[in-house]
Input
Amino acid sequence: MAQANFTNRTVWVGDNLPIMRGINSACIDLIYLDPPFNSNQDYAAPIGSIAAGAAFKDTWTLSDIDVHEHGELADRNPAAYSVIEAARNASGKSMMSYLIMMAVRLIEMERILKPTGSIYLHCDPTASHYLKLLMDAVFGSENYRNEITWKRTTAKGLASRNLPNNHDIMLRYSKSNKVIWNAQYTPHDPDYVDKFYKYVEEDSGRRYTLDNLVNPNRNRPNLTYEFLGVHRVWRWTKERMQKAYEDGIVVQTKPGAVPRQKRYLDEQKGAPLGSVWTDIRPVQSQARERTGYPTQKPVALLERIIAASSNEGDIVFDPFCGCATTMVAADRLERQWAGIDLSPLAVKLVNERISEDRGALWGGANVVETLPKRTDLGVLPNYRTHRHRLYGEQEGICVGCDTHFPFKVMEVDHKLPKSRGGTDHPENLQLLCSHCNRSKGNRTMSEWRASQSA
Ligand SMILES: C[S@@+](CC[C@H](N)C(=O)[O-])C[C@H]1O[C@@H](n2cnc3c(N)ncnc32)[C@H](O)[C@@H]1O
Output
């Protein structure tokens, strides 16, 4: 597995696509992303809040660049290409543009995740059905783990002709079946406690239930014996049974009754957490954690995700980190963390929020405005040494104008320019004739093609 090529507590300011392209493969344990949802709204934090000035757009218009990026997906990930095509037919061009933006980023997230890693994509029903197909295309449907429903608020707006929309969705996928998982529990329902833990110990006041000690497998001669006058196949050996009886863990409620095991409520972990989360409230207007950032998520939500899908010291990454909720939760749970946001306000907010937790000990996030450079590609030969191989593969044809040229006028081009996170790796190289290479300049192939068709 590759080492991360960034330090703990890094916040990059900029577009997450070229930044992620510069991150080493397979170096991140957990990704949580809460991207724009294609809500057709633009967001801004109220003046006077600590997030004042934060704003982002969530309206999408199909551009020529999108169309060319979509075309490139046909080679890189044909399943993602088809999902986007289907979404355009079903829902229109705005959805197509949004999904192209998501697809190219999800492909990078899949690459940088460790084989034991998990990803949680936070979205809402506007696009969750298309995003799930896209996640299947990028991560593999076999790596789908859960669709988590988070009840954000109580239902409001009964006057409308629709049911009020009061939940978000988190799509949880893993990179492989070796995924890290720590089961989570919630307190038992009070009705369940009354019904199942109906006994209360007189001296200690502890609630308990009585559990079965009879072995379901009747063919266990070594566990078949008489205990307190009852002959059964037991779950425990006679010695263990005797010891538990002396410790008061095994009880017989009346002479002749089958002995049973006391199970105390306060020793249970609680009810296993399911995929519908109703116990985490949204950030309230008076809450201490409130920054005023539009779309701020509660720290408790992130703490649960991080506890379930990572261990202490692991790297947690949020490529749309907003007001840094993921960073705050990861820091509290002693994980390493890194985040990206277009807005420099993310840096201010991460520092303010974490220094509130840590006080004077907090030295500030490592703020980076340049693209990371991958260090996991080994020592690559000078990229020009690939000219002969590329000339053969392309059969002497320039990728830009589809014209045949002699070898000597062909130039090696980085499909994704180095200044945009592209590498010297052979996969990122192609030959263009010198005219096309000059014309393309520092643009991606999609941008260049879009400018030509405009
Ligand atoms: C829904 S908010 C995230 C809120 C965050 N989960 C929180 O609790 O504060 C989405 C964030 O993504 C950022 N964003 C949108 N497009 C981006 C891009 N291409 N690269 C980096 N950040 C982006 C926006 O600036 C915004 O802060």
User: Anything to note?
Assistant: Residues 15-16, 34-36, 56, 293, 295-297, 320, 322-323, 325, 340-343 surround S-adenosylmethionine (CB under 6 Å).
